[in-house]
Specification:
The chain has a single domain, classed as NAD(P)-binding Rossmann-like Domain (Rossmann fold, 3-Layer(aba) Sandwich), CATH 3.40.50.720. Helices cover 43% and strands 14% of the residues. An eight-stranded mixed beta sheet has the order 3-2-1-4-5-6-7-8, sandwiched between helices. Helix 3 runs parallel beside helix 4. The model has no long low-confidence stretch (mean pLDDT 95).
Length: 287
């Protein structure tokens, strides 16, 4: 019986680093099908046309990580069409600009809802489809390193201890994310150890989640060689950085693509990787 065709999915991929990851997978070339997903169908299909100019062929499917209905529709499609999934790159995210005038509490609510809980919902729905040997990449940030809980207020040490604990569960981490939102609205988040950046918190949460997910997958699906790692793709010239980053999109795709294509039985599990593929100690640094 022939092996099923491999399937890779990249979220938030109509532009920026996500688009770069799709391009890099196709140029590798990836031995299978690559799905470029995006909230907006028109922009997603335009991205496919851009790839086609270079002779590269991906497939598009609409996916809004802020909509459980959209995520479940995509899950059902992948299950029906392919029966399973081999690579999942969670790249979709939002960020408020420094000049944003929205109240900090509102920024916290929106950023954590999309970047953390939206990504978590994608994982909940798609992880059951992961086939043995699957690779999951959480696109985090240098701002997602634990050092962002940076020792400038009384609650930092305890918060760092909780976030880095091997006993931290998904439920407890979700409680911490919701606590940050509540404290941000009250204006007391900093004294409790949280930084004054909603994006940083969302990415610290995503990096911490990666470690939890690897522990859980090791416990529930041992010997299946499923790897879940996070990475800092670098400070890249994209809309997200207001085109201030010095790295090209192709350079920003290097680490995520490398993690997506790790060979069988690679020892990196629940790790945190720098844009140049260096493995970084997420708890103790340095960055």
């Amino acid at each position: 019986m022939a092996s099923p065709t491999k399937v890779a999915v990249v979220t938030g991929a109509n532009k920026g680093i996500g688009f770069g990851i799709v391009r890099a997978l196709l140029q590798h070339p990836y031995d299978g099908i690559v799905y470029l997903t995006a909230r907006d169908t028109t922009r997603g299909e335009a991205a496919l046309e851009e790839l086609a100019k270079s002779g590269l062929t991906a497939r598009f499917h609409q996916l809004d990580i802020d909509s459980l209905e959209s995520i479940q529709a995509f899950r059902d499609f992948i299950k029906t069409e392919h029966g399973g999934l081999d690579v999942l790159v969670n790249n979709a995210a939002i960020a408020f600009k420094h000049a944003a005038t929205d109240p900090f509490g509102y920024q916290a609510q929106e950023t954590i809802r999309v970047n953390y809980f939206g990504t978590l919902n994608v994982c909940h729905e798609l992880f059951p489809l992961l086939r043995p040997g699957a690779r999951v990449v959480q696109v985090s940030s240098s701002l997602g390193h634990l050092s962002q809980i940076n020792g400038q207020s009384p609650g930092d040490a305890e918060l760092r201890k909780q976030l880095s604990s091997d006993d931290l569960t998904e439920e407890k981490l979700g409680d911490l994310m919701n606590t940050f939102i509540r404290l941000a609205k009250e204006g007391t988040h900093h004294s409790a150890g949280w930084p004054n950046s909603t994006y940083n918190v969302s990415k610290v949460g995503l990096s911490a989640l990666t470690r939890i997910q690897q522990r859980e997958i090791d416990a529930t699906r041992p010997c299946q060689d499923i790897l879940i790692n996070s990475c800092h793709p670098g400070y890249v010239n994209t809309d997200m950085t207001s085109h201030q980053g010095p790295l090209s999109i192709a350079e920003g795709a290097v680490a995520p693509t490398w993690l997506a294509l790790l060979p069988p039985n690679y020892p990196l599990r629940g790790g945190y990787v720098w844009y140049d593929k260096r493995i970084v100690d997420w708890v103790n640094g340095p960055t």
